[in-house]
Amino acid sequence: MAGADPTGLKPNAFIEANGAARETIERAFRLTPRTIGLFAVFGVFVPALIYRGAVRDFDANDDRYGRPRKKFL
Known about the structure:
Keywords: Membrane, Transmembrane, Transmembrane helix. This protein has helices at 13-23, 25-28, 33-64. The protein is mainly α.
């Protein structure tokens, strides 16, 4: 009994490496033009496109049913 893993599970090396990388992301992160571009695309442009599409859908439905358009922003 002594020295054996009580659960009998073997650790997955990929999961352990990924967990270790996530714990040290503050020290490993580098601000590069690529990371700035990724932030711009996925942090600004994609949400703006989703919002714009939703507002256009609301406006189209308001026009279809003869309601006045709502002002969202």
